[in-house]
Amino acid sequence: MIDHQQIYGSGALIFSLPENIFDLFRQSEFGTALIVADQYLEDCKREDGPMHPETLDAMNSLGALLSRVDDHDGAKQMFLKALAGRTKTLGPEHPETLATLGNLGHELKRLGDFQGALRCHRQVLESRERSLPKNHIGIIAGMVDVGSAYNDIDDLGKAEESLSSALATALKELPPGNREITAASLGLAGTLAASGRPESALPILDRAEENLARSQNPDCLETVKVHVARGNALAACGDPAGARDALREALKAASTYFGPKDPRTLGAQMGLGIALGKTGEFAEAMGLLEDAADGFKRALGSRNPHTAVAEGHLENIGSMFFLRMKMIKKILEPGRDAGDVVKDLKKADVPELQIKRILGSLWLDPLQGGPGAPDTSATETPVNLCIDVPRSALRAGPKSPAVQAAKTLFECKERELGPGHEDTLKAQVALGNALLSERRFVSAEKAYGRARVAAEKSLGPLSPAALGSGLCLRIARFLKADSQRKRACFGVQPEPAKPWSGSSLPPTARIPQRGGDGLSCRD
Question: What's the mean pLDDT when you consider all of the chain?
Answer without folding.
Answer: 75
